[in-house]
Amino acid sequence: MASLNVGNLGEYLREQRRAAQLSLRQLADATGVSNPYLSQIERGLRKPSADVLQQVAKALRISAETLYVRAGILDEREREELETRAVILADPSINERQKNVLLQIYDSFRRENGFAPGPDADGGSADGVTADTDGDAGTRNGDDAGTGTTKDHDPHS
Length: 157
What we know:
The chain is mainly α. The chain is built from seven helices and no strands. The protein is elongated and about 45 Å long.
């Protein structure tokens, strides 16, 4: 069999497997992928599917996106965008609404710089920011600035 051009994927997988101190058989057991098939991938004889790469990445505790780039499934810019999105979505210090707004702003900047919005972009408005649905955007320390509501308030009462 002739070697396929898979971006040195096989060599990289072998390095990662050895760094994890796993034999090929142990990796096969951990991934559910056959030992001979993994051997062929490492030798550059087979190009694995995204599913197989994801299983291998999980077993080796490495980024599946990195493997996708090396296999030619994903381009480097897409990987960087996915990693940026993953970091935002994984941040426990901000709530879901804030994560969505941040992703919308990120998509807006990407569009402004000539890149397509990400795969999870939900369309939003023309500038990438959608209306606030829970009514607390712009509220600071209890005032109603930015919420679009007005209240009659007598400062002398």
